[in-house]
Amino acid sequence: MSLLSGHGIDYLIDSIQILEAIDIRVDAGELVGLIGPNGAGKSSLLRLLTGVEACTQGEVRFDDQPLGQISAALRAQRMGYLVQGAMAYWPFRVEKVIELGRIPYQKWWQQVSSDDQKIVEEAMTKTETLAYRNRIVTTLSGGEQTLVMLARIFATQPDLIFADEPVAALDPYHQLHVMEILRSHATAKRAAIVVLHDLSLAARFCDRLYLLNHGRLHCSGSVSEVLTRENIAEVYGVDSHIVCNEKGVSVTSLSRISDHHP
Amino acid sequence: MNIKAIEASVLYGILLPVLLLVLVMAVNVGPVDIDLGKAIQDWLNDQTTIESLILFDIRLPRSLLAMLIGATLGLAGASLQGLLRNPLAEPGIIGVSNGAALGAVIVFYYGIAGIAWFLLPLGGLIGALVAMIIIFLLVGQNRSIITLILAGIAINAIGGAFIALALNFAESPYAMQEIVFWLLGSVSNRSVNELYIAMPFMLVGWGMMLYCGRFLNALTLGEETAKSMGFNVARMRLVLILGVTASVGAAVSVAGNIGFIGLVVPHLIRPFVAYEPRRLLLSSAITGAILLLIADIVVQILSDNGEMKLGVITALVGAPFFLFLILKSRNVLQ
After folding, report:
1. End-to-end distance of chain A based on CA atoms, in angstroms?
2. Under a CB-based contact definition with an 8 Å cutoff, are residues A93 and A137 in contact?
3. Half-sphere exposure of A210 (CA within 13 A, CB side)
4. Cα gap A144→A80, rounded to integer Å
5. Is-contact A2 A67, C-beta < 8 A?
6. CA-based angle B72:B286:A91, to the nearest 5?
7. Lowest model confidence (mean pLDDT) among A224-228, B281-285, B303-307
8. Do A81 and B213 touch (CB under 8 A)?
9. Is residue A253 part of a domain?
10. CB of B329 within 8 Å of any CB in chain A?
11. Domain extent listing, chain B
12. Which of A29, A120, A45, A110 is nearest to A73 (CA)?
């Protein structure tokens, strides 16, 4: 049984078709990659799957229940959503930001309990953010901030994590760190779905990939099924060089294809 | 930025005794000196004496009103700054202040304010209600927050335009002076009646704003993240704005426009609560009450002949402080 599944998802904003006839599923233990060019509808799809927005047509099921029938609080406890370019608007201490992850478990009058504190501590350990727990989050580097935002999600202890371009604008060290954390989350009953632009990272860490183009699913499947030279040429409009050896898969874009119209 | 956040117990341990102290000082101030002990004793013995009359019919209602209004403005300012994630928001921004002021001005304009004591606050409340319905219709449609702010500015401008019209065609210079003085904002010569008429709206509004504390904390990570944390953002926003409208509308209805408390107080407190929007709410309410009480004490001390209005002193002190804040906070907040 899939942890999360979407069937025949259509999504329109002001009668403009953003997504059309998308079928997608995430099984327990999987790290699923969502790839595609800018404007393909990856972020929109993620928003629908998290329940932040509602589909125009089609259905999203979580744990074999329609998403709309699960209470907002329960949904917030079982799914964590790392938005694109996540940031804090007030200069909070790092630990305070991570404590926000406990909000889905608190009633409106409740404060952070000692149990919550323990879970926050674990989340900081998992993401190696303990060292700067007392720093002001807005003064951290981009990589450190991403780790803090990820720690906030771990403090919620979700089964399923959605991450929208979590490694964009990060250096290679932090890219690997974030992907490793997500990879280790996606075991046993838990899973994660990640939007990525770096195809080599997608190839390296994801179990399966969904390739989106113009709001439609171009193809899906294992890394070797999706990341072919033909698919990349057709969807991204670039000629690429794909190397596959014992150290993994790497995709290098060589040149733009001149007759490609995005 | 060197200010260290302090524990909630310490913060309230300081603020609440200060509030009590300032309240005692406030009821001690007036044109005549009275013996507070005797006044309380007479009142307890059910004896109506000059002292007990002055304390319980004149000074205490006035001071309690200043306290409630200060708390309302501090709380509403903290709420709106949290909602808009903008430290420059203030209670008047959503248009309710001028709505309430216009309602009261209409009562003045038709010269019926003197017929019954409740007509003036009632006019203010109706004005606030009309502004509130317009805001409700706008926010209820799940518009963006920018639309809301711009609509608030427009409602304020419309209220201001009609107030100008009323001043323009005021019957006599005396009527005009009455309107202008009222608009400046004051709690002098208010009785228990004003307290009773404004308090229910304020308390309900406070409850609604405090209920939104957890939501404001979640909003620190943006609306999208708040949604994913289980909040119905459109509904919470509505609850918060209705809370602001009810309490600020009531405050303006009985005391006119008192500026800068709602803008400045959250800034003063924010470093002490580690910038946490939820903890900012209650502490801003208490601090607002303290500051407005102090302002009212100053007003009474300065006023030997012709009283200086409360709104004038909050603006005189608040505006330069506001400028100072803008220059200082440029580097801290995005």
Report:
1. 37
2. yes
3. 23
4. 19
5. no
6. 95
7. B303-307
8. no
9. no
10. no
11. 8-329
12. A110
Question: Across residues B208-217, what is the average pLDDT?
Answer: 97
> Which residues does chain B have within 8 Å of residue A76's beta carbon, measured at their own beta carbons?
228-230
A91 inside domain: yes
pLDDT at residue B152, as a whole number: 86
Going by their DSSP bridges, the two strands A160-164 and A79-82 should be labelled as parallel
For residue B249, the tally of other CB atoms under 10 A from its CB is 29
The encoded tokens of residue B116 equal: 């019954």
Q: Which residues pair with A6 in a beta bridge?
A: A24, A60
Q: Find out whether A147 and A178 touch, Cβ atoms under 8 Å.
A: yes
| Percent over 70 (pLDDT), chain B | 95
CA A23 to chain centre: 17
Write the residue in B218, B225, B230 that is nearest to A72 by C-beta: B230
Predicted TM-score (pTM) of the model is 0.92
What's the CA angle centered on B17, arms B15 and B19, to 5 degrees?
A: 65
A67 min Cα distance to partner chain B (Å): 12
Query: Which strands make up the sheet holding A79-82, listed edge to edge?
Result: A79-82, A160-164, A191-195, A31-35, A208-213, A216-221
A234 CA: distance to closest CA in chain B (Å): 32
- The number of distinct structural domains making up chain A is 1
C-alpha dist (Å) from residue A149 to A31, A45, A53:
19, 21, 21
Domain that holds residue A168: 2-223
Look up residue A136 and give its DSSP letter: B
Contacts of A51 in chain B (CB under 8 A): 228
Position B138 pLDDT exceeds 80? no
Separation between Cα atoms, residue B261 and residue B235, nearest integer Å: 27
A160 falls within a domain: yes
The pLDDT tens digits for A102-120 are 999 999 999 899 999 999 9
Closest to A93 measured CA to CA, from A40, A56, A54, A130? A130
Is the Cβ pair B275, A92 closer than 8 Å? yes
Name which of A234, A202, A103, A80 is nearest A153 in CA terms.
A80
At position B97, the amino acid (one-letter code) is S
Q: Which residues of B109-122 are buried (b: 16+ CB within 10 A; e: fewer)?
A: beeebeeeeebbbb
Average pLDDT over residues A221-237: 94
CATH code (residue A66): 3.40.50.300
- Between CA A145 and CA A152, with CA A146 as vertex, the angle to 5 degrees is 90
Measured CA angle at A106 (ends A101, A107), to 5 deg: 145
Is residue A35 one of the residues assigned to a domain?
A: yes
User: What distance in Å separates the CA atoms of residue A31 and residue A161, rounded to the nearest whole number?
Assistant: 9
**What architecture is domain B8-329?**
Orthogonal Bundle (1.10)
CA–CA dist B334, B329 (Å, integer)? 9
Half-sphere exposure of A89 (CA within 13 A, CB side): 19
Whether residue A41 contacts residue A24, with contact meaning beta carbons closer than 8 Å, is answered with no
Which of B213, B276, B333 is facing A96, going by the closest CB pair?
A: B276
Across the interface, do B221 and A138 touch by the CB < 8 Å criterion?
A: no
